[in-house]
Amino acid sequence: MGMISSMKKIPLYMTWYDFRRELGKRLGCVPLNRQWLQIKPRVALPWDESHMQASLSRSIEQSQRKESIKHKADETTDTMRD
């Protein structure tokens, strides 16, 4: 009579290298050092899935801000040409 467990295995990242590599897979590219320092968890290792989700969110927010700034700069340049 065995017990049936429905718990999913939650990844636990013991090194920043493993965490960064998985983050890169999920983002589609490995974050460069400057971005990594801004999005990595601020707490001590080990890191878990909640830390991964938070880092992904911060990365997406940064990308959106960069796009917004670039778009505004393009609009300003266009209006200056007119």
Fold and architecture overview:
The chain is mainly alpha-helical. It has one domain (12-73). 63% of the residues lie in helices and 5% in strands. The protein is built from three helices and two strands, in the order βααβα. It has helices spanning 16-27, 33-39, 49-81, and strands at residues 12-13, 47-48. It has a two-stranded antiparallel sheet with strand order 1-2. Helix 1 (16-27) packs across helix 3 (49-81). The chain is elongated. The model is unreliable at 1-5 (pLDDT under 50).
- What is the CA-atom radius of gyration, in angstroms? 19 Å
Q: Which percent range fits the helix content?
A: 55-70%
* Overall morphology: elongated
Largest sheet: 2 strands, antiparallel
Average pLDDT across residues? 84
- Taking the alpha carbons of the first and last residues, their distance comes to 79 Å
Low-confidence stretches: 1-5
Compressed to H and E, one letter per element, the order equals EHHEH
- Structural class of the helix and strand makeup? mainly alpha
| Number of E strands | 2
The percent range for strand residues is under 5%
Cross-sheet strand order for the largest sheet: 1-2
Q: Number of helical runs?
A: 3
Number of structurally distinct domains = 1
Outline the fold blueprint.
Blueprint: E1 12-13, H1 16-27, H2 33-39, E2 47-48, H3 49-81
Antiparallel strand pairs: 1-2
Helix pairs in contact: 1-3
